[in-house]
Amino acid sequence: MGLATNFAQFIGTPSHMSPEQAEMSEVDVDTRSDVFSLGVLLYELLTGTTPFGREKFSDVSFDELRRIIRQEGPPRPSTRLSMLAAVNRQRSPCPTHRDSPTSFKNNDPTQG
User: Fold this and answer.
1) CA geometry: angle at 65 spanning 62 and 66, to 5°?
2) By three-state DSSP, how is residue 105 classified?
3) Tell me, what DSSP letter sits at residue 7?
4) 48-68: per-residue pLDDT in tens?
5) How far is the C-alpha of 87 from the C-alpha of 5, rounded, in Å?
6) E strand or H helix that includes residue 79
7) Where are the domains of the chain?
8) Is residue 74 classed exposed, middle or buried when 0-12, 13-18 and 19+ CB atoms within 10 A define those classes?
9) In this structure, how many other beta carbons lie within 10 angstroms of the beta carbon of residue 93?
């Protein structure tokens, strides 16, 4: 007896799922979805979190989860890395490594 999935069956880890998979149709679910998932892994390796963090999916309905995956664009890795760098500088035990509030351009820590 072989293992088979049904048409439009939701299979996979939502945080690593391509928008085509979230559509729940077999159209356009091919090698590109695998490449998308590899991109999510790279994103996670660079930033320490998936494009849509666990907190984003924790308290949403099934349909909302699918909508987020299909329609919302995640933050760019460079934006996440800039924010992480700003937070790490502020947590630094050495005062000379911390940013002053005036060092941010237009009050944006990503532009510091």
Assistant:
1) 90
2) strand
3) T
4) 888 887 788 888 888 888 899
5) 44
6) helix 77-90
7) 11-74, 76-112
8) middle
9) 6
